[in-house]
Design brief:
Blueprint lengths: L9 H26 L5 H52 L4 H22 L4 E2 L8 E7 L6 H19 L3 E4 L2 E4 L2 E8 L18 E8 L15 H12 L6 E6 L10 E6 L3 H16 L10 E2 L5 E3 L2 E3 L1 H7 L3 H13 L1 E8 L2 E7 L3 H4 L2 H6 L1 E5 L6 E5 L4 E3 L2 E3 L5 E2 L2 E8 L7 H12 L9 E4 L2 H31 L3 H12 L1 H10 L4 E2 H36 L10 H14 L1 H20 L1 E2 L2 H7 L5 E2 L4 H46 L1
Parallel strand pairs: 1-21
Antiparallel strand pairs: 2-6, 2-7, 3-4, 5-6, 8-19, 8-20, 9-19, 10-17, 11-16, 12-13, 14-15, 18-19, 22-23
């Protein structure tokens, strides 16, 4: 079996690498110089040639950079690091230093928790992504004609188009907007804010305008500097939010799982009019307070919806032989029509609908004076009775909808938050404002929506973390046939939270409920793996030393032997622990920073188009940084604090054993 690495024929591979690099890159350069921007077969040949050129560069890089660097690290840097580490471990296990190191680390955990409470980071349920869409919801008073809504929407669309032209420069003589790709307007059906819930009611008084932004990598100004789509969103909010007689809400697209509005207050009660009045009072109370950072507060139920009730005089209708069903059917047919037949043309069929002409359909007098024709059951004669003879019409207003939650009537007061605002902080301020607010008898006020989902997810992920730790504990107990070492390993998992908390505090990063908790759960597995490696090898060294000293398996090593064995175990396992941590951290840095490389253009055009950020970093960044912060500190825990804890427990067991032997 080979125990040494095969030597590399450096002159041979240097020649191969140089030939590949010169021929490949030279061919690629010649094609681009001769043809400009090649297409088709020349582009394919240039790409293949460049691929060989990069292969040659990688060979030369390995021979003259990575291979000498590896030799230096293994034969010079790492031995010095091992010697330094041995001195650190020996110092930490000397005298009372072991207790000081352990208690100091535990104290650091409490300090980090205290700092987190004193300087809390922004807490978010889900990552705050860069907008890909700007959804502009326009709402006019209930009853507004759709033509009036359409006219205002066209004006608003024109204003938006003029605003986004500030992000335009010329390319080949043509204007190019590097931020906005398209603007789409819609009026009437399907224009309600999705957070209002599903609704089948016609909405001629509502409109929606969607501004679609370009992909992140194309959001570059004329100087090549990246521009945030949040700037465009704030520009729209500053210039088109105040339209007289209309409510305008500007929201970005929401990524991640379905969730309610950031600010969502549900008010329930039996009397809907009183609940609506109370909701309007709460709305005014919040709007008159100094609380800032939220968008437009809106109610999902309105009271100004016009209606035209038809009241039937049942006694008179019964005397004339007319039923309420006949009256309702006649009015419905006049307004919405009724299919009376079908016209067939070869394979196609067309429904024939009967209804009033527009001139009569929207005329109340014509509707009420229409006659109901029927055969009298008593006399057998055909009779005609005008609707106005047995019914009367009146004008009034009602609620736009009646919504229920668990059979209770509910009205929701909701709002989004402005870009960069902290919804958790705003909701906390609103809760403090309404803490002493008197809720009428028979009504309830509760905060739901995103905050409710945030609390549920945090509770679920906390239980998942405890479950994962418990399962890890059971597995390690089965491996070591002891509860002592698994307990010490779980302590390192808990202490690794110091790195996560301090990292979030020092770099002022957001605490993302979902992503950060997933990162902590992932971190537990890596930390446990490194601790097991060290603890298992330390146990092997203890057994070997007992055999050398002629002690039986149940005996304990003398106290003076423990420090030497633990220092040897740490020095031997330093390499695998360090390599695991270094490779994990370096592998996560591109994910944490959102590093993007276009390998196709790198090979075909020598242009990697490197940029940092993008949509994915909003999701993967918090997970990656959590693991990086935690694992960096956990490496110290594994290499120093784990031997300290093993030493303290072994010293206690050894002293008890030798005291019994002396007795």
């Amino acid at each position: 079996m080979k125990t040494e690495e095969d030597t590399v024929n450096r002159p041979k591979w240097t020649r191969i690498g140089a030939i590949l690099a010169v021929l490949g890159l030279g061919t690629h350069t010649a094609i681009y110089l001769g043809l400009g921007t090649p297409v088709g077969l020349p582009l394919f040949v240039a790409t293949i040639a460049n691929l060989f050129g990069y292969a040659g560069i990688l060979i030369l890089t390995y021979l003259w950079i990575f291979e000498p660097g590896t030799q230096y690290f293994q034969k010079s840097a790492l031995p010095r690091l091992e010697q330094f580490y041995s001195r650190v471990v020996a110092f930490s296990l000397r005298g009372k230093n072991a207790r000081k190191f352990f208690l100091g680390t535990v104290g650091l955990l409490f300090v980090s928790i205290f700092l987190l409470a004193a300087f809390p980071p922004k807490v978010l349920f889900f990552p705050n992504n860069e907008p890909n869409l700007a959804n502009i919801y326009l709402e006019l008073p209930v009853g507004t004609d759709i033509e009036a809504t359409n006219a205002l929407t066209l004006e608003l669309e024109k204003e938006i188009t003029e605003l986004v032209t500030t992000f335009t420069y010329e390319v080949d003589g043509q204007p190019y907007n590097y931020m906005v790709e398209s603007i789409i307007a819609q009026v009437g059906k399907g224009t309600s804010d999705p957070r209002e819930g599903p609704s089948n009611v016609p909405t001629p008084h509502k409109a929606k305008i969607v501004v679609a932004f370009r992909e992140t990598k194309y959001r570059l100004d004329q100087d090549g500097q990246p521009v945030s789509s949040s700037d465009v969103l704030n520009l729209l909010r500053d210039n088109i939010s105040n339209i007289p007689g209309a409510v305008v809400a500007i929201e970005k697209d929401q990524n991640g799982p379905p969730q309610g509005a950031p600010i969502n207050i549900e008010l329930t009660g039996s009397n809907y009019e009183e609940v609506l009045a109370f909701a309007q009072e709460v709305k005014r109370e919040i709007e008159n307070s100094p609380i800032k950072g939220y968008d437009e507060l809106k109610l999902d139920v309105e009271s100004g919806k016009p209606e035209l009730p038809i009241t039937v005089d049942r006694a008179k209708a019964r005397s004339l032989g007319v039923s309420t069903g006949q009256i309702g059917d006649a009015l419905r047919t006049a307004l919405f029509g009724k299919e009376i037949s079908r016209f067939k043309d070869d394979e196609d069929e067309y429904p024939i609908n009967l209804r009033f002409d527009d001139a009569y359909r929207y005329n109340l007098e014509s509707l009420m004076n229409q006659k109901i024709t029927f055969r009298d059951q008593g006399s057998g004669r055909i009779k005609q009775v005008p609707i106005s003879a047995v019914a009367s019409a009146s004008k009034s207003s009602t609620f736009s909808a009646v919504k229920r939650k668990e059979l209770d009537r509910v009205i929701t007061l909701y709002s989004g938050v402005q870009e960069g605002a902290n919804p958790t902080q705003i909701v906390g301020e609103i809760k403090e404002l309404l803490a002493n607010y008197e809720v009428p008898r028979g009504m309830t006020l509760s905060f739901t929506g995103q905050q409710e989902e945030q609390a549920k997810e945090f509770s679920f992920l906390s239980k998942a973390l405890l479950g994962a730790v418990f399962m890890i504990f059971l597995i390690i107990v089965g491996q070591f046939n002891s509860a002592r070492i698994p307990f010490l390993i779980l302590i390192t998992v808990i202490l690794s939270l110091i790195g996560v908390l301090l990292g979030l505090l020092f770099f002022r990063m957001d605490f993302i409920i979902v992503m950060t908790m997933i990162g902590i759960i992932s971190l537990a597995g890596v930390v446990v793996n490194n601790a097991i490696v060290l603890a298992d090898y330390a146990g092997q060294l203890f057994d070997r030393r007992k055999a050398e000293l002629g002690l039986d398996e149940e005996a304990r090593l003398p106290v003076q032997e423990l420090a030497n064995m633990l220092a040897e175990a740490g020095r031997t396992r330093l390499r695998p622990v360090l390599l695991t941590a270094i490779t994990t951290v370096l592998g996560l840095i591109p994910l944490a920073t959102g590093m993007n490389i276009d390998f196709f253009t790198l090979i075909s055009e020598n242009n990697p188009q490197i940029y940092f950020g993008g949509d994915n970093v909003a999701f993967w960044g918090p997970i990656s940084w959590t693991v990086i912060f935690g694992l960096t500190f956990a490496t110290f825990l594994t290499l120093v604090i784990m031997p300290v804890m093993l030493y303290l427990t072994e010293v206690a067991r050894s002293r008890r054993y030798w005291e019994k032997q002396g007795a």
